[in-house]
Design goal:
By secondary structure, this protein is an alpha/beta fold. The chain folds into four domains: 3-131, Rossmann fold, CATH 3.40.50.2300; 135-310, P-loop containing nucleotide triphosphate hydrolases (Rossmann fold); 314-386, Helicase, Ruva Protein, domain 3 (Orthogonal Bundle); 391-453, Homeodomain-like (Arc Repressor Mutant, subunit A, Orthogonal Bundle). The protein is built from 20 helices and 16 strands. The protein has helices at residues 11-23, 34-43, 60-70, 85-93, 106-132, 148-160, 177-186, 205-213, 230-233, 249-261, 287-292, 298-304, 321-335, 345-353, 359-373, 383-386, 391-398, 410-428, 433-439, 444-453; strands at residues 3-7, 27-31, 48-52, 75-80, 98-101, 167-170, 195-199, 214-215, 227-228, 238-242, 263-264, 273-274, 278-283, 307-310, 342-343, 378-379. The strands form five sheets. A five-stranded parallel beta sheet has the order 2-1-3-4-5, sandwiched between helices. Strands 7-10-13-6-14 form a five-stranded parallel beta sheet. A two-stranded antiparallel sheet has the order 8-9. Strand 4 (75-80), helix 4 (85-93) and strand 5 (98-101) form a beta-alpha-beta unit. It is elongated.
Length: 456
């Protein structure tokens, strides 16, 4: 089923095509002129435009040019009642998908052309999804571990995946929530369709809305053409909403409506587009506490947490630390072209006994740094060197900071403290910038400014 706009100055042609295309299950709108078609293209997204060439005032070639500029993802099929070689050449040069002569076999030819255009569109979307989502990362095998906690998680994924229900993944930062989401998708009937991931905390509200739902030309400054949102791009597949707790309340209302109605409306648009997408959400925060604090909507919570999945922390699966460490050793030693054969036994014991506040992500970063510094065939891991040491901690141990008799560089001293605190917050947050900003009790925007200021 596709959304199709039909444009012809003859009402009888519009009605005939409308009936024929609807019989094939498509959503069809018709207009009786080029200007009306341009208005429609400016206010909604269509997968296919079928337009006559010879029309008064605004002809089909002009509509084609407008469509290529304002909605480049829309395929265009031109039809005409006269044999016109020059018009055919213009159509091909202008980017038309096909050119069909109005004759006795119009409906049959058009049906074939529509099918070909939609097949091409599907291939483009699959190609986009494959580029965005490396196929090797989709397997359940990428969830590394043999302990009971991980085996229980894998069993849950296999059970949940075949259903079409919405899933909410809980877990601390760095535990691998996106890997779990990808595994659910890979084990589901939607596995051959797109998997689209977006971090809801990485965008301000207005940008998040346009990313998820798309926008039409002129919806805001810089919107020079129509753009499909990720819900449409993921059609037939899965969309993963990471850090869903970071959505504003007003954005939560908009998402709730999409989940209820299963339709999206692009920013600045007036038309609803049906979407067939499985939603998987994730968060490291307690949504029930947020509901009590009126920062997360209760109705949205029940919509997204139909099936909850808890991802264990690395502290809860210490038996997997050695397996994970060796996996990362192989990965980064190979990338660095180093012949590091094993991890030293004392280093392994240290890794197993560490608390890992940043979980698997922190372990991976630790092994990567150790590999970069290692010059022998045996990997030594110094966790002490990995922990942030700040002047604030030194000052706390030695009492109040002391100003030397010969003076000091005050601005540099304060900058060093800020830089160290930012590094410490990022370490505790497992690299999640939003969480690090919360730990420092500064806005996400201010935190991003500090990262840029100190080149972190």
């Amino acid at each position: 089923m596709a959304s199709i706009l039909v444009c012809d100055d003859q009402r009888s042609i519009c009605e005939m095509l409308d009936i024929s295309l609807r019989k094939d299950g498509h959503r069809v709108e018709t207009v009786n002129g080029g200007e009306a078609a341009k208005k429609k293209l400016s206010s909604a997204n269509y997968e296919l435009l079928i337009t006559d060439i010879k029309m008064p005032q605004t002809d089909g070639i002009e509509v084609l040019r407008f469509a290529r500029q304002s909605s480049p993802e829309t395929s265009v099929i031109l039809i005409t009642a006269v044999e016109d070689y020059e018009a055919a050449v213009q159509a091909v040069k202008g980017g038309a998908f096909d050119y069909i002569h109005k004759g006795p076999g119009l409906l049959d030819e058009l049906k074939i052309a529509v099918a070909r255009a939609l097949d091409t569109l599907t291939l483009q979307r699959v190609n986009f999804a494959l580029k965005r989502d490396a196929a090797s990362r989709n397997s359940l095998d990428n969830i590394i571990g043999t302990g009971p906690a991980i085996e229980k998680l894998k069993t849950t994924i296999r059970t949940v995946a075949p259903t079409g229900s919405t899933v909410l993944i809980y877990g601390e930062s760095g535990t691998g929530k996106e890997l779990v989401a990808r595994a659910v998708h890979a084990c589901s009937p939607r596995s051959t369709e797109p998997f689209i991931s977006i971090n809801c905390g990485a965008f301000p509200e207005t940008l998040l809305e346009s990313e998820l739902f798309g926008y039409v030309k002129g919806a805001f400054t810089g919107a020079s053409q129509n753009k499909r949102g990720l819900f449409e791009v993921a059609s037939g597949g899965t969309i993963f909403l990471d850090e869903i707790a970071e959505m504003t309340l007003s954005m939560q209302v908009k998402l709730l409506r999409v989940l209820q109605e299963r339709t999206v409306r692009p920013v600045g648009g007036s038309q609803e587009t049906p979407v067939d997408v499985r939603v998987i959400a994730a968060t490291h925060r307690d949504l029930r506490e947020m509901i009590a604090a009126n920062t997360f909507r209760e109705d949205l919570y029940y919509r997204v947490s139909v099936i909850p999945i808890q991802v264990p922390s690395l502290r809860e699966r210490r038996e997997d630390v050695e397996l994970l460490a060796n996996h990362f050793l192989k990965k980064y030693a190979g990338a660095a072209q180093k012949s590091i054969l094993r991890i030293r036994q004392d280093s392994l014991e240290t890794l197993k006994g560490f608390e890992w506040p940043g979980n698997v992500r922190q372990l991976e970063n630790t092994i990567e740094r150790a590999v970069a510094m290692e010059s022998t065939d045996e990997l030594a891991v110094d966790l002490e060197a990995d922990q942030p040491r700040t002047r604030v901690a030194t000052a706390a141990q030695n009492g109040h900071p002391h100003v030397p008799s010969d003076g000091m560089d005050f601005e540099k001293y304060v900058a060093d403290i800020e830089r160290s605190l930012i590094a410490s917050a990022l370490q505790q947050a497992g690299g999640v910038q939003i969480r690090a900003a919360e730990l420092l009790k500064v806005s996400y925007r201010s935190f991003r400014h500090l990262l840029k200021k100190y080149d972190i």
